[in-house]
Design brief:
Strand content: 5-15%
Oligomer: single chain
Radius of gyration: 18 Å
Structural class: alpha/beta
Order of helices and strands: HEEHEHHEHEHHEHEH
Low-confidence stretches: 1-19
Number of helices: 9
CATH architecture: 3-Layer(aba) Sandwich
Mean pLDDT: 90
CATH superfamily: Alpha/Beta hydrolase fold, catalytic domain
Number of domains: 1
Largest sheet: 7 strands, mixed
Shape: globular
CATH class: Alpha Beta
Distance between the termini: 64 Å
Length: about 270
């Protein structure tokens, strides 16, 4: 009986986290810059940090006249994160999360006029695994609704390198069996698929990141440089991982990224 109750509880959590939702945070009309950002929280493609990397990010963007849309994209779910798919073969896998961000972009583009949003200034910002999804939202986008700027913050980048791959994110995205599929690893290793037509990128990470090795961002920076993609790369010495837009986590040094982003986005496409 106890085992059955635990199973029911886990499945309930699965259903809760499987639900996709796009939550708009619209800025005051007098302060509206016309910029829109779809926000993709992180969580190893298994859960979503909706506070530090979702709602708090949206509130900060609003304060700066930027419309935000927080995306609760489909993930593998917390039970899969905890048990590594060893107990229950549950949860969503790639490309479910890519489909969700594509649909979010389509919705924002479609409603841009009524929301007073400039279609030339619609981008995606993501954190950790959400940063990986941010890059996928352009590189592998299968629709006509593509972001005009990308902001991966302390992102997962490689899915192939044995030393630098964040294995929980790879398992969350691909599942317990596909995580070992070399073709899938290669296809989702962002550093190998950057193109010269990639929109401007704002990239941030910290050298003391204990979760996603900082070399991931260096790989992406190198790929963007090789393909002459306009971008700004900020690498801080301290700050760790998961600080999002809050002042509770991270350091005074890494918190500078928010000011740098507002300056960058303000000068973009002017």
């Amino acid at each position: 009986m106890r085992t059955r109750l635990v199973l029911i509880a886990l499945l309930s959590v699965t259903c809760l986290y499987a639900k996709q939702r796009l939550t708009p945070y619209l800025t005051d009309s007098a302060n509206n810059t016309g910029i829109a950002v779809i926000v993709c929280p992180g969580g190893s493609y298994s859960w979503l940090d909706m506070h530090n990397e979702g709602d708090s990010v949206a509130a900060w963007l609003n304060q700066n006249g930027i419309n935000a849309f927080v995306l609760r994209y489909r993930v593998a779910t917390i039970p899969a994160y905890v048990f590594g798919f060893r107990v229950l073969g549950i949860g969503h896998k790639y490309p479910d999360m890519l489909t969700d961000v594509e649909q979010a972009l389509e919705w924002v583009y479609t409603h841009a006029d009524s929301l007073r949003i400039n279609r030339n200034r619609i981008g995606v910002m993501g954190f950790s695994a959400g940063g990986h999804l941010t890059m996928l939202s352009y590189l592998y986008n299968r629709t006509d609704y593509k972001p005009t700027f990308l902001c991966p913050i302390y992102p997962v980048v490689t899915m192939r390198d044995k030393t630098y791959t964040h294995q929980r994110s790879r398992r969350g995205a691909l599942g317990v069996w596909r995580q070992w599929n070399k073709a899938m690893q290669d296809s989702l290793s962002i550093e190998d698929h950057v193109r010269s037509d990639c929109p401007p990128v704002f990239l941030v990470n910290c050298q003391d990141d204990p979760v996603v090795k900082y070399h991931n961002s260096e790989m992406l920076d190198s790929a963007l440089t090789v393909h002459h993609v306009p971008h700004q790369y900020l690498q801080y010495h301290t700050g760790g991982h998961g600080f999002g837009a809050t002042v509770i986590k991270g350091t005074e040094e890494c918190h500078q990224w928010k000011k740098e982003f507002i300056q960058w986005i303000s000068n973009l496409n002017q």
